[in-house]
Design goal:
Length: 269
């Protein structure tokens, strides 16, 4: 797993931006001022020894004698404005499908765990640099622990180029499904899945690599902080009196603060 993460991190920084060539220069035109007051613009194609000039203008050819011409000027070479380069969509809907590896950092309240994550984000491209959207997903561990995050997603690209670093911020709600084992007070234990929830926030730093104008690969390293509010109801056995079992009902409350780091690879379209 360690070697795989090192390889993925190397791929994250292995891409570079492609250089863009300058636009072609527009050929200069000739401007002929006639003694009659007219001004003709085009390209001089021929000039003979008598001073007669042939000029091509608008797919037509004109000829003027030297005694008809007052003066001739040549325009300076002009470069057209360079078109704005957008590495990806300028505006509109964009979807992001991500999968990755998540490591839960151990604390005094919880153990470490490795998790596989899968997220889908529906976003709107407000500008070439900024997207806002809503995401949901699942994170599955090998410890009978499942997470269901729902979050608002904000992304800021640093450049308009084909390949661009970006910042992401996910803020929302983290659902947790966990298998909890409880004693029945008579020496027996039983397991049951319970659902808990709490606030989550996850900042990320990533890199977007354009495949074509509508599709890109995204790589990101994320940190995740989330709360879990735990509330468990259970019955404590008190004994059997006159053929009847008696129990006392209890509710156990706890509040966990957890952290995790993850590496994700995704497709933006």
């Amino acid at each position: 797993m360690k070697n795989t993460l090192i390889l993925l991190l190397f791929c994250l920084f292995a891409f570079s931006s492609f250089a863009q060539k300058d636009s072609a220069t527009i050929a200069p035109r000739d401007r002929i001022y006639l003694k009659s007051g007219f001004v003709i613009m085009g390209v001089i194609t021929e000039k003979d020894s008598t001073g007669t000039i042939k000029l091509e203008s608008g797919h037509r050819e004109f000829s003027y004698r030297a005694d008809e011409i007052k003066k001739i000027e040549k325009e300076k070479p002009v470069k057209p404005p360079r078109p704005q380069i957008y590495g990806f969509k300028k505006m509109g809907y964009t979807g992001i499908l991500e999968c990755g590896y998540t490591y839960m950092i151990p604390t005094s309240q919880s153990n470490s765990a490795s998790m596989f994550s899968l997220h889908f984000i529906n976003s709107y491209q407000e500008s070439p640099l900024f997207t806002v959207g809503f995401g949901f997903g699942t994170e599955i561990s090998n410890r009978e622990l499942y997470m269901l995050p729902f979050f608002a997603d904000f992304r800021l690209n640093f450049t308009r180029k084909h390949n661009s670093p970006f910042l992401e911020l996910a803020i929302g709600y983290n659902g947790v499904i966990s298998n909890v084992t409880i004693s029945d007070g008579q020496g027996d234990y039983f397991s049951r899945y319970h659902f808990f929830s709490g606030f989550m926030v996850s900042p990320s730093l990533g890199w977007r690599v354009r495949l074509n104008p509508k599709t890109a690969l995204v790589f990101s390293l994320s940190y995740k902080y989330y709360d879990t509010n735990i509330s468990l109801n259970y019955a404590q056995y008190n004994g059997n009196y006159f053929g009847t079992d008696y129990y006392t009902l209890y509710t156990w409350y706890s509040y966990l603060k957890s952290q995790a780091v993850s590496f994700k690879v995704g497709l933006q379209f």
